[in-house]
Amino acid sequence: MPLVDSHCHLHFAPLLDDIEAVLRRAHEHGVSHMLCVSVSLSDIGPIQDVMRRNPSVFGSVGVHPNEAGSTDSLFDDLVRLSAHDGIVALGETGLDYYRLEGPDTTRQQQQFRQHIAAARQVAKPLIIHTREAAADTLRILREEGASDVGGVLHCFTESADFAREVLDLNFFISFSGIITFKNAQALRDVARLVPEDRLLIETDAPYLAPVPHRGRSNEPSYVSHVAQCLADVRGVPPERIAEATARNFFRLFKDAAPAEASAPLAMAADPRHA
Question: 121-177 pLDDT, tens per residue?
């Protein structure tokens, strides 16, 4: 079964600047589907443009915790935008205290709670980002009933105990190119413990390119290196990781309908050059 990149940002430069080649390389390396993830509400237009170009790309709607802005109408905006064709999840959302200036976490937490409420309203899973905020992330997921819709902890870098907690909350765990880094042995140890039916893989492109491409711009074609590393860590063939993570993707993102077998290489013409 082909690979699925469960989290990338195809609407970001430099990927968007060369999108036809990026998508072609992805399919040539066995990547059948990709989820293009939003970090702000203004992303909906560019994400839809990418989805129109290729039926193997799905999208999300959400506001990254580091994105400032009013939360007054956020719930209504998320519910409205999530109804667009091809939008299969809400996020990425969550908490990121790494660059937080001062002790005030109110805006991030309010924003996070509104995403969970909107996800429950529209019955779509959540894409969760967490950094240096593990305890508050778990607390808010529990308080807001996030287990009703579930979702994924993307680009996972937390502890085994945290992994067990989010698994109990009906969430999947996605590993990125970080798992291939030399100093990521603790993360590889966690990856060995996650049940096969809760695993996902991602690139987070254009960020976090895996070894042997570290230091370059990342892209979905490199997700094969994440799959290979997971296979090595778990002592199974890479084909088994590809099959399991692809199956898990479509089980979690129920609104993501697989493209026809012949569709991935048939990209729509760019309307800007029509």
Answer: 999 999 999 999 999 999 999 999 999 999 999 999 999 999 999 999 999 999 999
Q: Does domain 3-267 have CATH number 3.20.20.140?
A: yes
pTM for this prediction: 0.93
The mean pLDDT of 229-245, rounded to a whole number, is: 98
Label residue 266 by pLDDT band (50, 70, 90).
very low
**Secondary structure string (H, E, C) spanning the chain:** CCEEEEEECCCCCCCHHHHHHHHHHHHHCCEEEEEECCCCHHHHHHHHHHHHHCCCEEEEECCCCCCCCCCCCHHHHHHHHCCCCCEEEEEEEEEECCCCCCCCCHHHHHHHHHHHHHHHHHCCCEEEEEECCHHHHHHHHHHCCHHHCCEEECCCCCCHHHHHHHHHCCEEEEECHHHHCCCCHHHHHHHCCCCHHHEEECCCCCCCCCCCCCCCCCCHHHHHHHHHHHHHHHCCCHHHHHHHHHHHHHHHCCCCCCCCCCCCCCCCCCHHHC
Q: How big is the chain, counted in residues? A: 274
Q: For residue 34, what pLDDT is reported? A: 98
Region of poorest pLDDT, from 138-152, 239-253, 255-269:
255-269
| Distances from the Cα of 209 to the Cα of 39, 93, 145, 172, angstroms | 19, 22, 34, 22
Domain boundaries, the chain: 3-267
